[in-house]
Write a structure and sequence with these properties.
Blueprint (H helix, E strand, L loop, with lengths): L1 H29 L4 H31 L2 H5 L6 H4 L3 E2 L2 H32 L7 E8 L6 E8 L7 E10 L3 E8 L2 E20 L11 E6 L4 E8 L1 H4 L4 H17 L5 E4 L5 H8 L5 E11 L13 E6 L2 E6 L8 E10 L6 E8 L7 E9 L9 E6 L7 E10 L10 E2 L8 E13 L5 E9 L2 E4 L3 E4 L3 E10 L6 E8 L9 E9 L2 H4 L5 E3 L6 E13 L5 E2 L24
Antiparallel strand pairs: 1-3, 2-5, 3-4, 4-6, 5-6, 6-7, 6-8, 7-9, 10-13, 10-17, 11-12, 11-14, 14-15, 16-17, 18-28, 19-23, 19-27, 20-21, 20-22, 20-24, 24-25, 26-27
């Protein structure tokens, strides 16, 4: 099992170390170097090997008497100390330290350009704008504490997880506007700890032998920072908490899986880049948060009913217990979209909520999604980390999606409480819009009671988004996708202008191939077309109504021949 794989990995690493040393000895003989230079190297190698062996023996004896989860939660110990399958990355830290001044300059420009639209489109109600005036990554690079390599059935890629801690000298100065006034903000003492995932895919037959690198954070990282500003502004009730949550969520929504940064290393087709940038979901995770046991705080008394947060990737939920107690009962059920059950994790953290200060953590735990069985509830009793006492009782179930609609025919019957299908929408661009002058244009997508928005395409008549959206669907026969296109007004007090609408009944997607050019209904002038691809994926084991038949309207839309489809499956 895992122990055999870890032992095999250790022997392989040791073999290559010995082989490397013998190669150095060969080079000395090949180029006729004096043997006196070789002696100190041999002695140094022997000393290092013995020291590492003694260190590993101490760690193993410590692991024998200590719980591994508690050891892993200690921040001063790197991940490779606790887990044999994780290799140290000292060489990478040396290289990164040398290259950091050059990386710093590039990263600053990348952050400025990539975060501007995200920040402006997701501003809290209290703010009208927020912009960087000064940005410095500091002189201290992230510290990588270990790397785990995954054995993959797919021969076309390589997957690595690198654990890191960044406690640098990051400084960001921002100008924030509230109504007609503005004030300065400063973000300092940024600390991020987590795991970054690197996917090398596809592997190619020419140098550098890797087509592209896909980079993302595995799960929501631990983030902490200091927010500074004008004293009287920061003392406004609720403003400090709103800004803190907004900045934290901005970091998470940009980098946490399935969001990712793609770095092409060779020329690749657009469809390949899109498949890397937007991985398709594989199923749903159902989580039943049952109860907590023996929760404890430093003050020996809870200030409020315990609050539990649940996170998978960049998705999160909150549940508050009905009363203040150290043994709370939640009995709340949640549903997450899963993109890779083999590597994603469910993170739970319990807080003692404070209305006027930072919530105090009562401990956290993680549950690998691969421990959840397909179609069956599994009960977990998880001990909370970084606290002296506390446990959570959680039930999970994984429900896989079909790979394609062709796997089985018929209308899926709705589930009693949960989703029966997932709708994926790729919103590419809008063409043929005729207006007096360009405008700031965005789209609002709605399925049932769930709505999502694109970013704002600034000052244009042909906006492009290239964005994917996922919606959980409970009843395919009754629900529809509605896309509304708006021109944004410069002032928040004014109502945005509706340019047109597209409606798609979801049951149409089962019985005919969906089009990719959709006429914009209600457009005042011209014949604007929304370039959009929609795909419905149904749960694998769900019951279907095969006799269902619907009178489908005749498709009179323009031909979509030659349009790039972002679902190259």
């Amino acid at each position: 099992g895992d122990s055999f794989a870890a032992m095999s990995n250790a022997y392989v690493v040791r073999f290559f170390r010995v082989l490397s040393f013998l190669f150095v000895v060969y080079l000395f003989g090949r180029f006729g170097l004096h043997w006196s230079i070789l002696v100190p190297l041999i002695l140094g190698w022997i000393v290092l090997e013995k020291r590492q062996m003694r260190f590993q023996q101490k760690i193993q004896s410590f692991l024998f008497v200590q719980d591994r989860k508690k050891l892993a939660s200690l921040p001063e110990l790197p991940s490779w100390v606790s887990f044999p399958e994780v290799e140290p990355l000292d060489w990478l830290n040396v290289v990164l330290k040398k290259m950091w001044p050059y990386i710093n300059q590039t990263a600053v420009e990348q952050i400025r350009t990539s975060t501007h639209s995200i920040i402006q489109n997701n501003l809290p109600t209290l703010l009208t704008s927020l912009e960087f005036t000064e940005l410095d990554m500091g002189n201290k690079p992230p510290l990588f504490t270990g790397m785990k390599t995954y054995e993959r059935k797919n021969k076309d890629d390589m997957l690595f997880d690198c654990h890191f801690v960044w406690d640098g000298e990051f400084v960001a100065l921002m100008k924030a506007k509230v109504a007609l006034s503005s004030f300065d903000l400063g973000l300092t003492d940024l600390r991020i700890a987590g795991s970054v995932r690197i996917l090398a895919k596809p592997l190619v037959s020419r140098p550098p032998f890797i087509g592209a690198l896909s980079i993302s954070l595995v799960n929501r990282p631990d983030i902490d920072f200091t927010l500074k500003g004008i004293a009287n502004i920061m003392e406004v009730p609720g403003l400090h908490g709103v800004l803190r949550n907004f900045l934290t969520n901005t970091i998470v929504n940009m980098l946490v899986f399935p969001e990712r940064i793609i770095v092409p290393l060779v020329d690749l087709p657009p469809a390949t880049i899109d498949a890397l940038q937007n991985p398709e979901p594989t199923g749903f995770l159902l989580v039943n948060l049952v109860s907590g046991r023996s929760l404890k705080v430093a003050d020996a008394m809870l200030r409020s009913a315990p609050l539990c947060t649940l996170q998978v990737g960049n998705q999160s939920y909150r549940a508050t217990a009905p009363k203040r107690t150290a043994d709370p009962t939640w009995e709340a059920t949640f549903e997450f979209v899963v993109h890779d059950a083999n590597v994603q994790k469910l993170k739970l953290e319990v807080f003692d909520k404070d209305q006027f200060d930072i919530d105090q953590s009562l401990g956290s735990c993680e549950i690998p999604l691969k421990s959840s069985e397909d179609g069956a509830w599994i009960t977990h009793l998880e001990t909370l980390n970084r606290v002296s006492t506390g446990q959570l009782v959680v039930r999970t179930m994984y429900k896989p999606l079909e790979k394609s609609m062709e796997e089985s025919a018929g209308l899926p019957l709705p589930e009693e409480r949960f989703s029966c299908a997932l709708l994926r929408v790729a919103l590419i661009k809008l063409t043929g819009l005729v207006s007096a002058q360009p405008a700031d244009i965005y789209c609002e997508l709605t399925v049932s009671n769930s709505s999502q928005q694109t970013s704002v395409a600034p000052y244009t008549n042909e906006p492009e988004w290239g964005k994917h959206f996922d919606f959980r669907v409970k009843d395919v026969s009754q629900e529809k996708l509605t896309v509304k296109v708006f021109a944004k007004q410069p002032l928040k007090l004014l109502k945005n202008i509706l340019l047109g609408t597209v409606e798609v009944p979801l049951d149409e997607l089962i019985y005919r191939t969906p089009k990719t050019l959709w006429p914009l209904e209600g457009a005042a002038t011209g014949q604007p077309l929304l370039h959009m691809h929609v795909k419905l994926k149904v749960l694998r084991d769900i019951k279907r109504l095969s006799s269902f038949k619907r009178d489908l309207p005749v498709d009179s839309s323009p031909s979509s021949e030659g349009l790039f489809t972002p679902f190259p499956r």
